[in-house]
DNA sequence: CGATCCCGCCACATT
DNA sequence: AATGTGGCGGGATCG
C-alpha cells in the first residue's frame, strides 16, 4: 500500500521524511519499541490530501519504513480519523483520489499541515483527556513519532510543553506517561501562584520602598527569581511519576518557558499576552543588550509553545492592535479560577482577579507610545542601544551579577519602557494634540482598553455607554463625563484641566502620567531622573512582569462597525471586539480624538502643557501608596471599563457603539475636562502599576471613597510602577508643586494636595490631585467642583456595577478616590485583553482591598468571580487608610 | 513584508 | 561511542 502511495509521490523530494503512513492506522501494533525508529525519511510527499485530514496525510505520508515499524509498534489511529483505524483503504483510496486529482496542488501538505499545532492535536487525539486512573498510558516517543509521521524532534517539542503542564511525565528513556488533564487545573493553579510570586512578588517589591526593596530585592529576588532561572521550572509537585529523575540537565528551557508563559497569562488580568512582551519577560539575560537574535529565537520558541497550548485549548491567537500596528498576542481561554484543588500555599489566590488594569496600560500615547515602544523593542533589544537615553543609562548601569542581571534585565526592560514612555510623554507634551489628554486615559479603562491605548476612545466609549453612569465621577470616566463640571469648564479645550484636574504626574520611571491639559510636562521629565535612580531596583523587579512594555495597544480599528474613523466608535468597537474574543482587540483609536471636545480641550495647547506627567511612584514601602495608586487606577479604569465593558459586552454591536460614541462626543464636549490626565504607563507593563489618575477631577469622580482618604482626593494617582520606585511625587497643580510646573493654577484646588500622605505616606503614591478631587467625604472641600458629588463612583452605573461587580466601590482605595471603580473590571470579563499586561494579578489584590473600604458588597460580587484575597497589600492599605483617617 | 514556524544541525546528556 | 534530548536559528511559508 504504502508503496503505492509512495510511488506516487515519490517523485520529488525525498528529503525529509514524512512518514506517516496510513497503513498504520490500523492500530494494531504490537509493541512499541523503545527504539527509535529511524527517521523515515524520504517520504516524498504524498500528495493530496486535504489539509484537514491531517491524519490522512500523515498516514499517507508515512514512509514505508515507518510503516514497518509502525506496524510493529502499532499505529495509531489518527486522530480524527482515527476511528477508522483500520481501513487503510480508505486512506489509500483517498489518497489516490487526491493524487489523481489534486495531486499537484496538494502535494505537500503545505506548511500548515505540518504545523506543530496540528501535530499536537493529533498527538492529543490519541489520548483521552481524562484517562481513567486505572489506565496508565505510556507513550513511546518513537512510536508516536512514526505514527504521526514526524521526526522525533517534533515530538519533543510537544511533550516538553505537555510535561510542563503535567499532562505527561517522563518515565524513562523514550517513554512518557500520559496523565491527561486531571491535574491540569491544579497545575495551573500552582503556576498561577508561582507566577504571582515570581512576577508578582517582584512587583510587590516595588511597592515597597526602595530600601526595602533593595534588600528585599536581593533576597526575594533570589528567591523568586531564582527559580525562574535556576530552578527549573517549578516543578510542581509531583515529580511525578517517573523519574523525572533527574532532571538534571539544564532546565529545559522549553519547559520552563512554557510554564512562565502560562504564568504570564494567569497573572495577567486581561489574559492576553503579546508575544513580544512575553519574549522580553522570558529573556532573562541580556537585558539591555539583548540581541535581536535572541529575541527572535525566544519568539520562535514561544510560537512553538503557543501552538501546543492552542491545541490544548488553553489559549488562542489574537491580535492586539496598537497604534502602530497589530501585534500578535495570545489570549488565555482556559480556566481561570482554580478552586480548590490546589492548595496553594500561598494563600492568596491570585487568581483571577487580577488586576484590573494594570499593565500597560495605558499608555496613552498612541503613537507616541508606540513609537517608543517599538524602538525599544526592536532596537533596543537588538542593539542595546538604547532606545532611549534614559533607558540606556539605566540599563547599563545595572548589570551586574547574574542574579542581578536578571533583575537588571527586567529593570532594564522596565526602564526602557519607561524611557519610551517618557519620550512619548514628552512628545505628547509637545504635541498636544496627540497627547491629548485622553489618550492616556484610556488606559485606565479596562483591560480592553488597555489594550488600546487610545484613550480617547475610551472615553468615548464610556460615556457613550453609560451616559448615565454615575461614574462620572469616576474619574475614569472622568474625562468623559460630563459630569464633571469642571470639565466643562474648559470646554473644550482647554484645558483643562481645569480646575480640577489636577494633575500630576509622577515620574517614576515607569510611569507617567499626563495630565491633560495643562501644564506641562515638565515634571515628568524631570522626574525621570529621579526615577531612574530609584527605579532600578524597582525596575528590576518590576520588570518582571512584563510590564514592560506595556504596550498598549492601540487600537486600530478594526472594528466593524466602525466607523472607524471616528474615534470613538472605534474605540468602542474595539472594546466590543474584545469581548468577543477573537476579535482582535484592536482598538481603534482614534487618534485624533475625538475629538472633539476633548481634544479640544486639551488641545494642544492647554493640554499639553498641562499635562504633565507625573509620575510617581510609590514606593513600595508603603503599601498604602501603592494601593492608592492602584485604586486610582482602578477607579478610573474601572469606571470606564466597567462601563464600557458592560456595555460592550452587552452590546457589542457597533451600532451601539456608535451611538455611544455620539454620546461621548457630546459628553466630551461637555466635559472638557477630561483631559486631564492620564495615564501612565508603566513601563513595565505589568508590573508596575502605574497609573494614573485622572485628571480631572471631576469631582465626583474621584471621590473616592472619600471617605477615607480624605485627602486624597486625588485626582490622580499614580502608582508606581514597579519600577518606579520611588519617586514620588506628585504634584498637584494646585499645589503646585514645585515640580510641576503646573502652572496653571488652574487647579487650584489645591486642596488636593492633601493627600494625605500621611497615611499613605509611605508610599507613595501619592497623588495628587489637584483639585480636589473630590473627595467626597473627606475632603473638606471639594474643591472645585463641588458638584460632583462624591461618590460618584460608587455608583456606577448599574450596569457597570454589575459587571464590574461593583467592584469598585469598595475599594478602598481611597487614595484615589475612586477606587471604586477600579476594582472592578477585573473580573467580569476576564477577557479583556491586555496585551501586555502581565501582572495583573497582583493588582487584584490591591484592589481588593476591601477591607477598607467598603462596600463589601461590591466585593462580593467580585469575589464571585474571583477570588480575591486581600492581599497583603490591601491590608496594608487598609491600614494605612486607617491611619490616615 | 512581517508573522509564523518548519526543519534539522549540532551540542550536551544519558546510556 | 551511540543514542537520547533539545537548544537554536536559517530560511521557507503564510497572510
Summarize this structure briefly:
With 885 residues, the chain is mainly alpha-helical.
Question: What is the mean pLDDT?
Answer: 44
The largest sheet, given as strand count, sense and whether it forms a barrel, is: 3 strands, antiparallel
Strand order of the largest sheet: 1-3-2
Shape: elongated
Helix count from the secondary structure assignment: 37
Q: Low-confidence parts, pLDDT < 50 over ≥5 residues?
A: 1-106, 202-248, 341-885
Give me the secondary-structure category. Answer: mainly alpha
Q: Residue share in helices?
A: 40-55%
Assembly state here? single chain
Q: State the total count of DSSP E strands.
A: 6
Beta-strand content estimate: under 5%
| Rg over alpha carbons | 27 Å
What separation lies between the terminal Cα atoms? 83 Å
Main location: nucleus
Subcellular location: Nucleus
Biased composition (Basic and acidic residues): 65-77, 644-663
Biased composition (Polar residues): 343-356, 864-885
